[in-house]
């Protein structure tokens, strides 16, 4: 277990005492195991994916085919890494040992614009072969080698699942080219990422009544910039989503399933039909929360704009101008977590009516 000192704790902005967000009554769910059974089953899954993306911006995936033993090995490897002495984790810090910022280990600081959280994390790039581009420190020693191996195996499995989901997204939209989104993630220059998050336990929470328990911001509210993100966590609660009416709801944890979020890039490609979902992690538990997120991103050179077929359905109205993923990512890095990054890329007509 990682215990933060009082000095470190005081660096984190604490929210006011507040009640926990109410649980979401029914999380949209898609079973991928039936996709290959028949054309009818695949069509039904595609419709369910499209509806969930349009109505909520997120959904849960079951029947995903990622084997339980692999997930157990990843959980154990992540727990072992975060249990290391701080000096050892710092060897994997961004920029340390030859690593390239912003990849590597970080604690409390999220990005470079003042966002703080009750969190430590490991951010890794994903290579063309679908493996973790890990910091040098993770390549040293037998335990680190095992960590690399399980990360590589996990990324390969989750990237396959991500592409299946993206093909269903395209089919659900009625697009002729069902690989229009998945090809961006499979491209050899795809800018995909993997982040392993650890939200340390709050021992004092054990003695606090739930109705007055102070909740810390683990990861502040934001949308994901990429096409989609695919998350799995342990059984500790904390993930919250903002519904379309602005209501925040908690999402029950499910260790056997994955949660898929619409990202900003998919919002642009669908001309705003699918909107990226605002989410956050709040920490009030006496137990640590660990989550692993795969972010499916396009190549830096990729030009992003609403797909012509979807623009035609809105009478030719384009909500977003064309830009490259590199341009958008550079802009996003200049903003704070909660900012609306897409507003800078809206067409004049869209901005005027917002």
Automatic annotation (TrEMBL):
Which InterPro entries does the annotation name?
DIOX_N, IPNS-like_FE2OG_OXY, IPNS-like_sf, Iron_ascorbate_oxido_reductase, Oxoglu/Fe-dep_dioxygenase_dom
Domain of life of the native organism? Eukaryota
Q: Which residues form the Fe2OG dioxygenase domain?
A: 189-298
Q: Does the keyword Oxidoreductase apply?
A: yes
The question of whether Metal-binding is a record keyword is answered with yes
* Reported cofactor(s): L-ascorbate
Q: Which GO terms describe its molecular function?
A: metal ion binding; oxidoreductase activity
Write out the entry's keywords from A to Z: Iron, Metal-binding, Oxidoreductase
Question: Its family?
Answer: Belongs to the iron/ascorbate-dependent oxidoreductase family.
Q: Tell me the PANTHER family matching this sequence.
A: 2-OXOGLUTARATE (2OG) AND FE(II)-DEPENDENT OXYGENASE SUPERFAMILY PROTEIN-RELATED (PTHR47990)
Q: What is this protein called?
A: Fe2OG dioxygenase domain-containing protein
Organism per entry: Miscanthus lutarioriparius
């Amino acid at each position: 277990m990682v215990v933060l000192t009082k000095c470190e704790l005081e660096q984190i902005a604490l929210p006011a005492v507040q009640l926990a967000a109410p649980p979401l009554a029914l999380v949209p769910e898609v079973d991928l195991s039936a996709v290959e059974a028949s054309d009818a089953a695949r069509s039904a899954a595609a419709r369910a994916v499209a509806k969930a993306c349009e109505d909520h911006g997120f959904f849960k995936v079951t029947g995903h085919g990622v084997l339980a033993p692999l997930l157990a090995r990843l959980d154990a490897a992540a727990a072992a890494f975060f249990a290391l002495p701080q000096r050892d984790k710092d060897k994997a810090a961004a920029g340390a040992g030859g690593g390239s910022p912003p990849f590597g280990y970080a604690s409390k600081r999220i990005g470079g614009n003042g966002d703080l959280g009750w969190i430590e994390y490991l951010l890794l790039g994903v290579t063309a072969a679908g493996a973790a581009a890990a910091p040098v420190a993770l390549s040293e020693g037998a335990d680190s080698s095992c960590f690399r191996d399980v990360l590589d195996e996990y990324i390969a499995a989750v990237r396959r699942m991500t592409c299946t989901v993206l093909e269903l997204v395209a089919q659900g939209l009625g697009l002729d080219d069902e690989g229009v989104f998945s090809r961006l993630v499979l491209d050899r220059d795809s800018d995909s990422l993997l982040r392993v998050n650890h939200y340390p336990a709050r021992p004092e929470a054990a003695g606090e009544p739930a109705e007055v328990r102070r909740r810390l911001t683990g990861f502040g509210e934001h949308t994901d910039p990429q096409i989609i993100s695919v998350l799995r966590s342990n059984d500790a609660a904390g993930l919250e989503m903002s519904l379309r009416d602005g209501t925040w709801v908690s999402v029950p944890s499910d260790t056997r399933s994955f949660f898929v979020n619409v990202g900003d890039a998919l919002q642009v490609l669908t001309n705003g039909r699918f909107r990226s979902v605002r989410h956050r992690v709040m920490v009030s538990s006496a137990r640590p929360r660990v989550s692993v997120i795969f972010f499916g991103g396009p190549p830096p050179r990729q030009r992003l704009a609403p797909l012509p077929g979807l623009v035609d359905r809105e009478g030719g109205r384009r909500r977003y101008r064309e830009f490259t993923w590199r341009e958008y990512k550079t802009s996003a890095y200049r903003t704070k977590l909660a900012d609306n990054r897409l507003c800078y890329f809206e067409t004049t007509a869209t901005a005027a009516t917002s």
